[in-house]
Amino acid sequence: MNLSIDHKNPLPLHIQAENLLRSMIKDPQYAGGKFLPNEVQLAKQLAISRSTLRHALNKLVYEGLLTRKKGVGTKVAETAISSKSKNWLSFTQEMTARGIVIKNFELHVTWVLPDETIANFFEISPAKKVLKLERLRGKAEGPFVYFISYFHPRIGLTGEEDFKRPLYDILEKDYMAIATLSKEEISAKTADKFIASKLELEIGSPILLRKRFVYDQGERPVEYNLGYYRADSFVYTVESRRE
Fold first, then answer.
1. Long-range pairs for 53-61 at CB < 8 Å and ≥24 separation?
2. Is the CB of residue 124 less than 8 Å from the CB of residue 114?
3. For residue 120, what pLDDT is reported?
4. Closest by alpha carbon to 43, among 21, 72, 23?
5. Structural element, H or E, at residue 168
6. Contact between residue 5 and residue 46 where contact means Cβ atoms under 8 Å apart
7. Over the stretch 27-70, which tens digit does the pLDDT of each residue have?
8. What DSSP letter does each residue of 90-131 carry, written as one string?
9. At residue 184, what are phi and psi to the nearest 5 degrees?
10. pLDDT tens for residues 152-175?
11. Distance from C-alpha of 77 to C-alpha of 74, rounded to nearest angstrom
């Protein structure tokens, strides 16, 4: 890509620099989270002052198109994964519908004793073990969500299932447990040591916690799900219509 601006053009230099940066953001050479050239080098190459270049950079940072980290550099912001509250699907189905290829980085299945919150949700004894499914998932570039799911023993899961398949497809086709209702809670949190290590973040970094409570057609509890998302990689949209 030709990195230059026209100094004979009457268009202000900071506007030309901004337009160039917008073109760089779309270029495969820089798109998808790649770093831009060093600020000093770029300003020198464009024959403009650093303050003029910084004026353009700051505008695109404000718009969320670029991200800047002191001592590291400026890079193109990765497109945030979007999820809607309307017509909910399993995570795999949801991402497939958006043309996003999902990679499983980790998958763990264990039988555990539920804590008080989970036992109360399932209306079972704390002495009754439940299946716990943990999955670290994301795009090829890296993980952006860590899921922890607990399932009601009534379903009959064994732990031997192929959990690379869409989750609700397994529940419905293999166990006749049809998930029809989802209630969700979204909250802002900071990453503890465990989640930070999974999502490749610094401890204390902002994350989104998405709790999903899933019920079958008889409104019986099926799944208790916790999703820990990188805050820089996930957007949750709510669509409401006034009747």
1. 53/14, 53/17, 55/14, 55/17, 56/14, 56/15, 56/17, 56/18, 56/20, 56/21, 57/21, 59/18, 60/18, 60/21, 60/22, 60/25
2. yes
3. 93
4. 21
5. helix 167-175
6. yes
7. 888 876 788 888 899 999 999 999 999 888 888 876 778 887 77
8. -HHHHHHHTTPPPEEEEEEEEEE---HHHHHHHT--TTS-EE
9. -130, 155
10. 999 999 999 999 888 888 998 999
11. 9
Q: Is 242 helix (H, G, I), strand (E, B) or coil?
A: coil
Rounded distance between C-alpha atoms, residue 182 and residue 221, angstroms? 10
Quick one: CA torsion of 5, 59, 236, 200, rounded to 10 degrees?
80
Residue with token string 């160039």: 20
pLDDT at 79 over 70: no
Confidence label for 115 from pLDDT (cuts 50, 70 and 90):
very high
Residues belonging to the chain: 243
Torsion on CA atoms 161, 170, 231, 27, rounded to nearest 10: 100
User: Beta strand pairing status for 130-139 and 103-112?
Assistant: antiparallel
pLDDT, residue 180, reads 87
Which amino acid is residue 15, in one-letter code? I
